[in-house]
């Protein structure tokens, strides 16, 4: 894997979670009936990666998995969470998917 430049790391940490999810998930659909109770811009998405199902709350670069009760920020964290990857493998997958 090519060396990770600090600019690329910053960019991947700032990628909108919806953009990252659409690039990473096998299936993703926004729940249009969801009304956020805390952060106004939050959206609920249902997604699949392989045989795994996720219910994600997305707001900017941040995500929260409502079922696993865990979250993070940026495309790297999302790739690690969805696929169970290492940091380096997550970077490789994001590069491969054009994120």
Can you offer a commentary on this structure?
The structure is a single chain. The model has no long low-confidence stretch (mean pLDDT 95). The chain is built from 4 helices and 5 strands, in the order ααβββββαα. The longest helix has 10 residues, at 87-96. Strands 1-2-3-4-5 form a 5-stranded antiparallel sheet, covered by helices on one side. 36% of the residues lie in helices and 27% in strands. The two termini are 16 Å apart. Helix 2 (17-24) packs parallel to helix 3. It has one domain. It is of the alpha+beta class and 99 residues long.
Strand order of the largest sheet: 1-2-3-4-5
C-alpha end-to-end distance: 16 Å
Low-pLDDT sequence parts: none
- Average pLDDT works out at 95
Major β-sheet profile:
5 strands, antiparallel
Q: How does the helix and strand content classify structurally?
A: alpha+beta
How do the helices and strands line up, and which of them pair or pack?
Layout lengths: L5 H9 L2 H8 L2 E4 L12 E7 L2 E8 L2 E4 L4 E4 L1 H9 L3 H10 L3
Antiparallel strand pairs: 1-2, 2-3, 3-4, 4-5
Name the descriptors.
five-stranded antiparallel β-sheet, 99 residues, single chain, alpha+beta, 27% strand, 4 helices
Task: Describe the structure in brief.
By secondary structure, the chain is of the alpha+beta class.
């Amino acid at each position: 894997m090519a060396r990770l430049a600090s600019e690329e790391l910053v960019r991947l940490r700032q990628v909108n979670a919806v953009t990252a999810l659409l690039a990473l998930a096998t299936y993703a659909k926004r729940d249009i009936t969801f009304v956020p109770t805390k952060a106004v811009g939050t959206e609920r998405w249902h997604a699949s990666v392989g045989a795994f199902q996720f219910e994600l709350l997305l707001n900017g670069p941040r995500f929260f998995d409502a079922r696993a009760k865990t979250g993070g920020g940026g495309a790297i964290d999302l790739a690690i969470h969805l696929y169970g990857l290492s940091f380096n493998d997550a970077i490789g997958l994001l590069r491969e998917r054009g994120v």
